[in-house]
Structure formats: C-alpha cells, structure tokens
C-alpha cells in the first residue's frame, strides 16, 4: 500500500487571470496544472496542483462539510455530490468519493473548483482556525518517555513519508506499556482503504516491533473512537483480552532484516 510507481494522469489548466492577484502567486499560477495520482484506495484520488497547499509535512483532514467550515476550498469541494472526505497535504489534496459515483463524473467539477480557487490565491485555511493540523513537531514532547520518543521518531521519519506518498497520513495516539500496544490513526486515502489492516500489521507493526522491543502490536483508532473515553475503553479491553489483539507470541517469527514499507 506504500510508495511505489503508480500510473499518473496529467491535466493542464492554464489560468485566465481575471482580477488582481498577489504578485507572489503570479509565477506559480500562471502555468498552473493539476496532476492526479492513483492511490491504493480506489475511492480516493490524490490531486497535485503544482503549488504549496500547507506547510512542509503538514496535513489536515475533513470528513464532512461541517468540519470544513475553516476552509472555503474544502466547503466548495464538499458541495459536490459524492465527496466523502478531503485531506490537505503540503503539496497535494486527497479526495475520497462514494462508491456509487464514478471518477469521470466527479473530476471535471473538482478540477474546475481547484483551478478557480487556487488561481485566485485565496487562503486554504482561515487564519483564525488552524487546529487539527498534523506536523512533524508532534513527534517530540519533553514529557515523553524513551520508548514513546523512539516510536514517534520512527513513525515520523520512516513511516509517515511513505503513507503520505499514497495520499494518506498517520497520527500517533498513544502507547500502552502494559501490553506493548501502539494506537494509531490512519487518515486520507489510507483511512478507508481495504488493505489498511494489512498495512498496519505487515508494514507498520513489523517495523516498530523490529526496532523497538517494547512494542508488541499496533491497533487502529477510528474517527468515531477519537473521544478520549472511547480510546481509554479500547485500551482497557486490550488489557483484559490480550490474545484478541495482535499476533500470539508463539506464532511470531524473529525478524532478521529490517522490514520496509
């Protein structure tokens, strides 16, 4: 599910400047084109508009038009029937659609909205509401213990870039030392991908277990489980029934080579 060579389609929309634009945008939008890239999730497509969307290594996801109130562009995209989620990256926008609507029906309107909005140089996010942006800075906290610091460093330096290449992102939620479980949240194209469970177990979990002996398993936290009480309940359930999570110890094989994503 991770980075690999994918077929890409190129669509070039040369813009017609109809009103004054901030001079800093002129060079980047004069030849604005939108490149699309397939993702492992058939219902998600990665749009690369050849200009910066968010800061380096930053992402922000919206799962509904109501959540997108802080982003006029996302609100416009959600106005298209069939759009399920929108995620911004540093230089890409991942859009997820409903299964019952084909991409050829959605692409023209998506391209039209992206081209018009980005040409005008309007802000991607309103200045007064930039909460929920994931950044590399989240990988470091002076209150973290050694194990958590190692987990975060590995996620943000080795795992996160690969997932972003596929139009998604990953967020560290917590580490439970009692059972060695790492709780993560997948976003964007990876959140609803059919192979997300394989990604967690064969990719992320294998890598974390190889480098950090305290890690025994990796479990996802869904969007609806993001509430702290629900997270705590999931963790407590894993403590009471450890065999229901991860791989049994007797069935685990020692890794002789570092796993790759």
From TrEMBL:
Biological process per Gene Ontology, one example term: iron-sulfur cluster assembly
The protein, known as: Scaffold protein Nfu/NifU N-terminal domain-containing protein
GO cellular component annotations of the record: mitochondrion
Pfam families documented for this protein: Nfu_N, NifU
Entry-linked Gene3D superfamilies: Fe-S cluster assembly (FSCA) (3.30.300.130), Scaffold protein Nfu/NifU, N-terminal domain (3.30.1370.70)
Superkingdom assignment: Eukaryota
Signal peptide: none
Taxonomic placement: Eukaryota, Fungi, Dikarya, Ascomycota, Saccharomycotina
Species whose genome carries this gene: Candida tropicalis (strain ATCC MYA-3404 / T1)
Similarity remark: Belongs to the NifU family.
Region (Disordered): 238-261
SUPFAM superfamilies: Fe-S cluster assembly (FSCA) domain-like, Hypothetical protein SAV1430
UniProt-recorded Gene Ontology molecular function terms: iron ion binding; iron-sulfur cluster binding
Domain Scaffold protein Nfu/NifU N-terminal: residue ranges: 34-121
InterPro entries from the UniProt entry: FSCA_dom_sf (IPR034904), Nfu/NifU_N (IPR014824), Nfu/NifU_N_sf (IPR036498), NFU1-like (IPR035433), NIF_FeS_clus_asmbl_NifU_C (IPR001075)
